[in-house]
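Lab channel / #folding
Pinned by the channel admin:
"Please post every new chain as: sequence first, then the C-alpha cells as a reply. Keep commentary short and put observations after the output so the thread stays searchable."

First post following the new format, from NK:
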Amino acid sequence: MTLIFRLYSFLGFLTLAGCVGASRPLPSPTVGGSNPAGSAVCDSGALGREYVGRDASALSNVIFDSPVRILRPGDPVATDLVPNRVNFELDDRGTVARVTCG
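Reply from TO:
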C-alpha cells in the first residue's frame, strides 16, 4: 500500500512538472521595429538620444509604430502600464526633457 501511494505521488509530481513552461527571455527593444510576436516595443534610450533637447513640434510629423503620449508639466498621468508606449516628457519651454516607456 505504501509503495503504491509513493508511486502515485511520484507520477503526480511528474505530471505537474510537465505543466511548467520553460521561461523565455524578453525580446530586446528596437526603435520602430517589432519583436518576434509582431508587436512594436519601446526603446527609450535611442528615442531619447534623438529627441531630448528638441522642441515638441519635432514630434508632430513623426509616425511611431507604438502608442505615444506627450506629457506636459502639470498634466495628469494615468498609472496604467502599456509597455510599448513611448512617453515624451516636456519641460516648461515645450522641449523634450525625457523619454520613457510605459
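NK: Residues 2-17 form the longest helix (16 residues).
TO: also worth noting, The two ends are 57 Å apart (CA to CA).
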